Amino acid sequence: MIKNRIWKRIAALGCCLLTGAGLFSGCMAQPVGAAAADGGIVTVSQSARWTDLENFQAVISVRADGLGNLSWTGNEGNEDNESPEGKAAGFQSDGGKDTTEIEPDIISEIQSEPASNLEDTSEVLSELPSESTPETVSGIQSRHLVVWLSEYFQPDLPVSLPEGCLMEEMPIQTADGRSASIYGFRYKINPGETEKILEIPVSLRREYRYPLEKRTVSTCQDAPLEKGVENLCQGGVYIVEKSGDRQRIICQTTSDFLEIPAGIANFSVEISPQEENAVAGERLLMNARLINTGQVPLYDLSLEAQAEEMEVTPVWEKEPEVETDGAHAVLQSLAEGEERTLSFYADPSSAQKGNLRLKVLAKTENPVSLEQTGEALVFIQPQKASFTVKKTADCDTARPGDTVTYQISIHNTGQQTLHSVITTERFQMAGVSAAFLEQEGVTLNKTKTQAKIPEIVPGGCVNLKARVVLPDQLEDQNLVNQVIVVTDETGEDEAVRDQTSIRVENKKTSDAVSSGAKSGNGSSGAGRTGKGQAPKTGDNSHRELFQALILVSFLISALAARRMFFRRKD
After folding, report:
1. Is residue 530 part of a domain?
2. Which run of H or E residues covers position 386?
C-alpha cells in the first residue's frame, strides 16, 4: 500500500517534468493538444490584442477545438491511440492501461513538497518496478473550458457572457505583496459540441498603467488554481474534466502577452500671492500650485520654500497628507492629472520694502528623479505713515495777564510706528510764546518751545500741554496759536499743522472808555456834561450806542420838522 502511494507520487512528478520540458521548448501561447479516446486531438488556444491602447482596453480570446473527439460514454480508447501530447498533458483515456490517475490528496502533497525533497523522490523511483496498472475512471460528469485572468487585467463590467459560462472571483496576493482578486470564467462543454469560443473584454488595472519603461505582462494566470485537480503542469487556459470525485486537466496552454508602453512622468509648480497688495510688516500669504502633468503617479514630493533679496524665512501651512517643518514640506502623493494647492507664508518686517523673490523647489525620487522650480516676484509696499494733530485751549476769551493752557493731541492713524515726533509751538504775534510742560518720555529744548516724542505706535496717541501767560500790553484781538508736527517717516514736506484762536480783551482799555462816559466832579462843571463824556444815565453801555441814539433822534426830528413846514404852507 505504501509502495503504491509512493509510486503514484513519483509517477505524477514524472508527468509534470515531461510536460514542463515540452512547454519550455516553445509552447508559449500556442495551441496544446491532447489525444481524445477515438484518436482525435483536442486543443485550446488563447490570444489577446489591444482594442483601445489609449484607454488600455483589450480583448482576450479563448478557443477550444476538436471537442467532437471527446468521448462521453467512458472506457473508450486505448494506450495505442493516445498521443505523446496527451500523455504529457495528463490526458486520461477511459480504456487505456497506462492512464495515470492521481488522488487529490497526493497531488496536494506533491504541490506542497519543498524543492529540496524532489531528489529524494527520484531515488525512490529507481527502486520501484517499472510497470504497474493504475486505476481507470469512467462516467464523465462534466467538462469545462476554464480561463483565469491575470492580476493585471479585469473584465469590463457588466460582462455579456454566453449561456453556460459563469464568472468567478478569487482573492490572491499580487507579485508586489498586495491583496487583490482575479476573475475566472468557466464555460461548460456539452456533448456534441465541436468547438468553444469565448471573447472577454478587459481593461488594464489602473495601478499597472504607464510604467516608467515599457513592459510585457501576461493576460491570463498561468499558476495552477484548481484544488484537487490533476493539473501539475501550469497553464493559463485549460479544459478540466470531472469524473466521480476526481478532476483532471485534459489539455491546456499558457498565457498570451500584451506590451504596455512606457508612461511619461512630469509635473509643474506655480506660486503666486494670495492678495494683490503686500505691505511691509504684514504677513504675506502665498499659494504653491502643483500639477501632475504626466501619466504616472508621483510619491514623496519634497518642497522647499526660499526667499531672496530679503532676510525672510517662509513657513509652510499644515495640509492633509503633507508633512511640514518650517520651510520644508513633503507631499505624500500626486496622482496622474491631479492638482494640489499648498500654502506658505512669510513675515517681512516693517522696515523691509521693495522686491521680494520667492521660490519653491520641488523634487521627487519616486518613481523617477524629477525636479521643478516655481518662483514669483512680489513687491513689498512700505507701510503707510499718517497721523492727525488736534490743538485746543482751555478758554475762549482771556485778558492780558491771564494764563492759557493748550493741549496738543497727536494720533498715529497709519501702519508704521512714528519716530522722532517733533512738535513746535508758536504764536503768530511776536513777543508771545508758549512753553511745553514737562512730562515723562518727552524731551524739551531749552526754550521749551519744541517737544520730541521718541515713537508713537500705530493706533497710539500722545497728549502734550503748553502754557502761556498773556502779556499785559496786549490789546483787544484774536490771538492765534499754531503747532507744527513732523516725524522721521513723513519728513518735513508732510508736516501736519493745527491752530486754535482765543479772544483777548484788554480790561484797562475798557475801563478808560467807561470812565470817560461818566460826569465830572469839578466845581465849575457841576451839573454839566464835559466834552467827550457820555451822559450819566446809570447805563454802562458803550459810547457807540449813545452816538447811534443821537443820530436816530436827529433824523426823526428832521422828518417831523419837514412835515410841519409843508402843512403851514398849505
Report:
1. no
2. none
Same domain? 360 vs 449: no
102-116 per-position pLDDT tens digit: 344 433 443 343 333
Host domain of residue 567: 535-570
Q: In this structure, are 373 and 459 located in the same domain?
A: no
pLDDT digits (tens, 9 = 90+) for 298-348: 999 999 999 987 888 999 999 999 999 999 999 999 998 999 999 999 999
Let me know whether 333 and 366 are in one domain.
Answer: yes
Q: What's the CA angle centered on 416, arms 414 and 422, to 5 degrees?
A: 85
Look at residue 525 and tell me if it is in a domain. Answer: no
**Residues 240, 278 share a domain:** no
Q: Answer whether 229's CB lies under 8 Å from 274's CB.
A: no
| Local confidence band at 282 (pLDDT 50, 70, 90 cut-offs) | confident
Whether 183 is in a domain gets the answer yes
Q: Are residues 80 and 152 in the same domain?
A: yes
Domain-embedded: residue 516: no
Residues 253 and 277 in one domain: no
> How many other β-carbons are positioned within 10 Å of the β-carbon of residue 497?
11
Query: What DSSP string runs through 173-234?
Result: E-TTS-EEEEEEEEEEEPTT--EEEEEEEEEE-GGGSS-SS-EEEESB--S---SSEE--S-
Q: CB-based contacts of 323: which residues, under 8 Å, 6+ apart?
A: 329, 330, 332
- Percent helix, strand and coil across the chain, each rounded to 5? 20, 40, 40
Residue 245 identity (one-letter amino acid): D
pLDDT computed for residue 523 by the predictor: 38
- Coil, strand or helix at 111: helix
- Report the CATH number that the domain containing residue 414 is assigned in CATH: 2.60.40.1530
Nearest to 373 by CA among 288, 311, 459: 288
Please identify, among 334, 359, 381, the residue that sits at the C-terminal boundary of a domain. 381
Three cell numbers at 256? 498570451
Q: CA-CA distance, 275 to 272, in Å (whole number)? A: 9
Point out the least confidently predicted range of 240-244, 497-501, 506-510.
506-510
pLDDT band at residue 449 using 50, 70 and 90 as cut-offs: confident
**Distance separating alpha carbons of residues 482 and 406, to the nearest angstrom:** 10
User: How far is it, in rounded angstroms, from Cα 413 to Cα 492?
Assistant: 18
- Do 364 and 331 share a domain, yes or no? yes
Statement to judge: residues 286 and 255 lie in one domain: no
Task: Indicate the number of domains in the chain.
Answer: 4
Last residue of one domain, picked from the residues 347, 362, 381: 381
Residue 185's CB: how many other CB atoms inside 10 A? Answer: 23
Which positions ≥6 away from 236 have C-beta within 8 Å? 46, 147, 148, 150, 218, 219, 220, 221, 222, 252, 253, 254, 255, 256
Average pLDDT value for residue range 431-442? 87
Q: What's the residue count for the chain?
A: 570
Closest among 214, 299, 291, 219 to 255, alpha carbons compared:
219
Say which residues have a Cβ less than 8 Å from residue 272's Cβ, sequence separation at least 6: 286, 287, 289, 376
